[in-house]
Records
---
Amino acid sequence: MRILIVTHAVKKNDGQGRVNYEIVKAALAAGHRVTLLASEAAPELLDHPRVRFVPIAPSRLPSRLLQYQMFAWRSGAWIRAHRDEFDIVHVNGFIAWARADVNAAHFVHDGWYRCGFFPFRLLRGFYQAYQVIYTLLNIVCEKWAFRHAEVIVPVSQRVASEVGALGIDASRMQVIHNGVDVDEFTPGPAERARFGLPEAPFMLLFAGDLRMSRKNLDTVLHALVATPANVHLAVAGILHNSPYPALVQSLGLSGRVHFTDMVMDMPALMRSVDAFVFPSRYEPMGLVLLEALSVGLPVITVRTAGGAEVITSGSGIVLDDPDDAEALTAAIVRLASDPAYARGLGQTARRVAATLSWQAMAERYLAVYAQVYAQRHAQAVPARATASVKL
């Protein structure tokens, strides 16, 4: 097949970019030809003889809203001019003013806006007004993009429900969960000293953006107050402009919460803790959750976190309410007080992750491509036969 993939970046150290990177690798291994319509692509992909890179220069317009619209107009114009050159056009959400065969839905702005935790208000200053306008415009654009695609691929059941709320029929959707590098994120020896962590305590890990309330570190900290003193928390994320160090101090947790700032070697940090806590108030599909499963960590998460749907009762604990600190405390205490139970969850978590490798994910996308391709050709045959009869 001749495949066109449209996205801002195709590279390993980027969430959506990594998904597309792995799809390209699998497509090339299967013998397909791939064109990348993007602003950035990994050099190792561009060196391949069956890869064509069509760069869309980043716009210099002020604001991400205008920059993304410019990308959408430029990429849409290019697609319309070259559509006949491709068997499959794969886009990612709203990224081009053009029809597509496959649209991968990684994030749905309407779901974020209506989830109950959207933090911005139109009349609370310029920045918040901009965020509201940006979100509302994206809702309109995403609805258009999903309606102009043959197949929509939500990255979780949560995202699928949000796409459905826009009026898209479930028959047009095929959920494909994001993947994880099961060879990089693998169980192994702890290196706590390397990260400045004490050796003795039961160590939880929280990883995420420390400037965003939706990641819900505040509930983790309030839950930690009610746990035994031998339960500690490692927090990985950029500390600049974060309110959480002050909250830690006010709660009297300074000796039990260890901020590591940004960590480049996340697999090593995950191998150095005992459990992963991820009570995000809103999450389409958390890659970090899959990474924790792959390392073999018992996971505590919540139903509002996309990805929780892959966790079985034997591989983690899924809570109902992200703001229920008492329930979170009870889950933490259960893991910390029962090593055999925690170990069993971790072992099952690793087996669950094995079904969610990047290769498995990419092969599912290729299967969708093949399905769309076959259906188009099946429809074309009767059309050609009818035309021959008329002649």
---
Amino acid sequence: MTTRVALAGARGKMGQQIDSILADMKGFEVVARLGRSSSLSEMDGADLVVDVTHPDVSGSIVEHAAKNGTQVLIGTSGWSSQRISELGGKLPEDAGVLIIPNFSLGSVLGTTLATIAARFFSSIEIVESHRASKADSPSGTAVRTAELMAAARDGIGPVEAPHTEQRARGQEVAGIPIHSLRRRGVVARQETFLGGEGETLSIVHDTIDPSAYERGIRLSLDAVQTVRGIVVGLENVLDLGISRS
């Protein structure tokens, strides 16, 4: 059986990469490639919609697809926990949406390690760097990391983040300061800094080339077909060998 795919954002860098991967995978056929001037109706009739567009238009694409009974894979950044919660209230019960803030295996492992460490350190901050043309900040990966770390500290208390009223202290997400750099020559980099009594821990992940996303994209394309409800994060596609609450 062939899965018919509508690819929204097909002309972007990530869209072109996914298009190439789909052409190489058995059992998939791209039946629609949507750009800025495309109508949402162009995705009708597909079995799967892959959304790698812009935060401003991603919501309407996902809602249209899911309400028509189409499975959705979201690779667009900017899906915070609040936005995901709002989406959940608009979708039919049988909808299947898989949201992947970052397709890199190293990135999801870095976020997982940071989440584990968050319970043991009182001081936490994130610095993330991306290409100059990235539209949103903080990045979806940094937001996801902060939210997971804050959730891991439930019952422990908030992190120590002094003077966050000052703009130079970054943007707080779930009580954790995030500092966003946008510069030429960078694909993606995230550093999570944790500090405690007499010691510090840094967890760093560098994306050196977009090929880092390929394995995660392939795994997500296979996994999304059986998703029910809203599932967030590549860690829910992988077998990390650790228990998760």
---
Amino acid sequence: MARIIGGIGTSHVPTIGVAYDKGRQEDPVWAPLFEGYKPVAKWLAEKQPDVLLFFYNDHATTLFFDLYPTFALGVGERFPIADEGAGLRGLPDIRGDVDFQAHIGEALVNEEFDLAFFQNKPIDHGIASPLPLLWPHEPDWPGTVVPIAINVLQYPLPTARRCYRLGQAVRRAVESYPEDLKVVVVGTGGLSHQIHGERTGFNNTEWDLDFLETLRDDPERLTQLTHADYVRLGGAESVEQIMWLAMRGALGASLEEMHRNYYLMTTTAMTVVTYEERENAAVGSQREREVA
């Protein structure tokens, strides 16, 4: 059967993609961020997952406010990467596995998650910004992607608990798929940041680090927080943390945190964390933490 071997939490700000495309990996302001992804890419190269399943949010690119679903699943063999104003990127279309995507969709609907489905739509920086930092792409991506978009833009938003339960349902869906696939679940979005209003530039590193510890060890506690709690603690855009909870819900109770890089850059806490299912982790491995 298909199985989940680990998870990744990552920022997805569009400037990461712009900096990557412009070859700014060695610039002093960007180097700490890009260096932080190298152990993650190495881990993925070693584990060779067949699928990256993304919980992310669309930024009015694939979807729009006149019809913006709570949860949406992409089904298709290929998804173009959106031009978000900086020009077309030199990346191949994102690959999909229709049979696996359709199975996930049917399983979630049967668990009473009322999904929307999209096809032939471009995917924006919610996935495309971190993806080339995780996987090589020449001449093509080494595996397929399952894109699951979560509404964190237009209220009412799904609760933190609902997103966590979505992740749990996704795990059951994956494990009921008969083919032998290795899956890594990715939750994207910023930790503390606010990019508009009176608190523009707000960050809360203490909260960010507490969130990461609690996400690993006691995620149920985070499901009790309201959207107002997340906004108060981390800024308006930090409500994206509920997508990390969806990722965590898809993982087992016992995890090994293999790598963490936290880099506070301008207005956003740029973070990438890798978790491995405990039964798949090497005995005695130590968590690698890089805090720049």
